Amino acid sequence: MLRAVRAGVAVVPGTVVVAAAYADAQRVAHAPLPPQLLVRAASAAGVGVCLLDTAVKDGRGLLDWLGPDTLASLVADAHAAGLQVALAGALRAQDLPVVRAAGADIAGVRSAACRDGRRSGALEAARVRALRAACAATREPASR
Fold this sequence. Notes:
The protein is α/β, with parallel strands linked by helices. It has six helices and four strands. It has a four-stranded parallel sheet with strand order 1-2-3-4, covered by helices on one side. Helix 4 packs across helix 5 (96-102). It is globular.
């Protein structure tokens, strides 16, 4: 399916296909791609980005399902295959150091940026500023 999507959007300049999997895939009835197959599927399809998220939006986040070592291993495998990696799934400001340490290229946040920490709430400038500050605090040293 990813190959077909990639072929279908190839005519649109600048379009990027993202292969996605869910850390909590076992909770989803339609049996989506399990996280351990994400890199292999993305690489085989010739897409450039992998996204690991959570399917069920019940407040349990990515780090409730996969530990830092597992995330770092997945990111390393993806980078070795020439893929970028986005990590998401109820990430909060305090989770960003783990995302950085795992080597992810992108951290996806929604609830953490919205009023009252609710994913359906409006974006809140103070929360966005706090997330930006957390990202700045987790930047890699220039020597790396």
